[in-house]
């Protein structure tokens, strides 16, 4: 096992989750065994695997255009949004808006709170506060997977049948069909970057990072082979961008939502394609 260069906290997280990782890799459809993972709530949080939530986009929508953000909130029936400590998406948005990186974590976190509150007011939803390190599931990034939820339903990695730490991308609600793969690329850049588990050759052919597509059983473009191809292309783009070393470092799975879960939990009045 590679341990040099990884935080003790991250390696403890791995030691506690090896069996869950093996289960997800072997039987990804087991995520559907616990239906509470799909019970609705109206809160949007970041895709960050340390933050618990069921409707997720980077920085609660901070990288979207105002129109995309409002459509996403409407599609996903969002009533409130939250910021969180040391949000990477907020850092990207800060650099976008000011032309340079924030001077410190304190500057970033203060601005993230301000900007997320402004986004809430603009969209007519509630700002529900800031997720502090004490509230996070894990202090350091220890995600072993990205759950790419192409179905139009809530999903919590922490409450799934396989409760494995992972980023969650709620792509089924996004109004822009290309935005979800952009966020998948962000998760891969974090997982394989200096803040993630993969920065020191943790992931390999024998222990790949997992991308699990959660397919919509009623939309051909969002399930099965079509979804797999979309995720595979996104991984190849992440390799070209220098985020991921080789294709063997990432393993893609697609599992379509069972019809009974879809019938009970899917939000169908969504305007996006």
Task: Based on the model shown, name its key terms.
273 residues, alpha/beta, 4-stranded parallel beta sheet, 7 helices
Write up this protein.
Helix content is 35%, strand content 14%. With 273 residues, it is of the alpha/beta class. The chain has one domain. It has a four-stranded parallel β-sheet. Strands 6-5-7-8 form a four-stranded parallel β-sheet, with helices on one face. Helix 5 packs across helix 6. It is globular, with a radius of gyration of 17 Å. The chain starts with 7 loop residues before the first helix and ends in an 8-residue tail after the last helix. The mean pLDDT is 90.
Please give the radius of gyration in angstroms.
17 Å
Number of domains: 1
Mean pLDDT: 90
Largest sheet: 4 strands, parallel
Q: Widest sheet: strand order?
A: 2-1-3-4
Count of helical stretches:
7
Helix content: 25-40%
Strand content: 5-15%
Class per helix and strand makeup:
alpha/beta
In short:
The protein is of the alpha/beta class.
Record the SSE blueprint.
Layout: H1 8-26, E1 43-45, E2 55-56, H2 66-75, E3 80-84, H3 88-98, H4 105-123, E4 126-131, E5 145-149, E6 167-169, H5 179-191, E7 209-215, H6 224-240, E8 250-256, H7 259-265
Parallel strand pairs: 1-2, 1-3, 3-4, 5-6, 5-7, 7-8
Helix pairs in contact: 5-6
